[in-house]
């Protein structure tokens, strides 16, 4: 005799769509800490480049 096992129910397509959308938006949206770090890195690199330009100008080195 065969034992019947209950089949797992599939999630409703609407629930699946909402879950997938929430997951992808979390994945694709950069978090605030990462954005802040990138901004600070860009500012630091720009400040260092500016400092180097000023030093070259003061030393009379032509670009």
Key features of this structure:
mainly alpha, 70% helix, single chain, 63 residues, rod-shaped, 0% strand
Structure overview:
0% of the residues are buried. The protein is rod-shaped and about 90 Å long. It has 63 residues and is mainly alpha-helical. The longest helix has 28 residues, at 32-59. Helix content is 70%, strand content 0%.
Short summary of the structure?
The chain is mainly alpha-helical. The chain is built from 2 helices and no strands.
Distance between the termini: 89 Å
Structural class: mainly alpha
Give Rg in angstroms. Answer: 28 Å
What order do the SSEs take from the amino end to the carboxyl end, as H and E?
HH
- Report the major sheet: none
Number of strands: 0
Mean pLDDT: 85
Strand content: under 5%
Uncertain spans: none
Shape: rod-shaped
Estimate the helix proportion, in percent.
55-70%
Number of helices: 2
Question: Secondary structure elements and their pairing?
Answer:
Blueprint: H1 13-28, H2 32-59
């Amino acid at each position: 005799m065969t034992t019947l096992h209950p089949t797992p129910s599939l999630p409703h397509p609407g629930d699946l769509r909402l879950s997938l959308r929430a997951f992808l938006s979390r994945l694709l949206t950069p978090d605030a800490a990462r954005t802040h770090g990138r901004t600070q890195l860009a500012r630091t690199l720009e400040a260092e480049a500016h400092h180097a330009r000023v030093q070259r100008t003061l030393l009379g080195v032509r670009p």
